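@channel anyone free to eyeball this complex?
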Amino acid sequence: MSYAENDKSQCIQCSLATFCAYSEKHGIETKRRVIKPKETLQFAHDKFTNLYVIESGALKTHETDLMGNEFIRGLYLKHEVYGYEAIYKGQYPFSSDALTKTIVCEISYQHFLTLLHSEPAFLGRVLYLLSQQLTARYYLNRLSAQQKLSAFILDLSARLLTKEPHLDFLLPISYRDIGSYLGLATETVSRVFSKLSKNNIISIQNKHIYLLDSHRLRLLAEGAMP
Amino acid sequence: MSYAENDKSQCIQCSLATFCAYSEKHGIETKRRVIKPKETLQFAHDKFTNLYVIESGALKTHETDLMGNEFIRGLYLKHEVYGYEAIYKGQYPFSSDALTKTIVCEISYQHFLTLLHSEPAFLGRVLYLLSQQLTARYYLNRLSAQQKLSAFILDLSARLLTKEPHLDFLLPISYRDIGSYLGLATETVSRVFSKLSKNNIISIQNKHIYLLDSHRLRLLAEGAMP
DNA sequence: CGGCGGCTTGAAAGGCATCAACATAAGTGG
DNA sequence: CCACTTATGTTGATGCCTTTCAAGCCGCCG
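replying in thread with the prediction:
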């Protein structure tokens, strides 16, 4: 893990862009870290001191149960904030690994709190983002594998496709991890992807996904179609 | 829906007790509402203006999909806060119904924001509670019905059993709603409960649950036992 | 007391996990 | 840059768990 130069060209779309703006006003610079693929940013039970905004790349959080099975618990993409779940116990509840080469902005929680107090607009922004998180990942308790995976693809596309006309993106996560995240076997994930592809709802090759029929995909996610 | 007299004997354990303390300091009284069983507190898309603390009873949130199927999305018990998920869109995303006779404290969001600004300790408390919510309901993507339900019972017991030595409580929700919440059929919920009862892990009659062996229940939730 | 919603239990069907074998991609070292 | 190794994805067969359908029971409330 190393530090990176400050390149703020990407920051406009950052979900905490206001944080950086206010930080500069208060004369504080934000640190950037580069995390190599599969490298760990924080281990479970590490003391909580920082939030992180993903500037590029992606993180997954995971835990291992008594039987040694790994469970994926969260996925953090470009412009999203990782760390809120650690406030509660004062430590990160899960390990967080980079899925690809990832650059994060390190935000001191102390500094973050100070800004929450002094900048009402920033507090509003953070409450907005936290509120959004509370109803995310609704699809985890959907019943069928096809519903879960369809909803998952739609969720990913909404989070990754900032430029409107584009309908394709790279899956930042392995089938095994998708399965673990959704409570499905790797093979099931593969089979459902094949089926969606065969039915011309998406096209997929080497993790490159193209949404051919997002309308039908939405129907599948709602369980409105076989 | 009607209003209730103020009886603050229960407020000590309220998760936002500090809110009321500060409110009084600022000379503002908190309103109480009584909601009858099956009555609706807020409908989906209602404009968001208030948070609610459950003083007694329980709420469920639910939505209906394209096919007309109802999905239970959340469960709010005594001393817990309902409404955070509405900040995001400025409207309540789901309908919320009382499961039993329920009394809630109505908290104006405007007033809530004011207090967040003026009282740092209150801000800390709210962030703590929100952080906790982010990792709750982890068991929804567990694989087997037994794991989900075991984890659900443990979750409920942790939230309902404030007095330590007690190990029994009343299920505040129907089997149908539990199934909808966990992504299981009503019959499966019934069968798993029967099995847990037959194996002397819990005893259950008429929604009254007694934890006979919470250790083994925890193992079941982790998937460590057949 | 009668009706209705909620719970229980059984039998059948189907979806998904599991196991196994293979194919392909990615990563490593010479 | 290629050969080797390892990780990841694909495909088929089998069995189990859960859903679904059906029927009956129980408790509750009007």
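from a first look: The radius of gyration of chain B is 18 Å.
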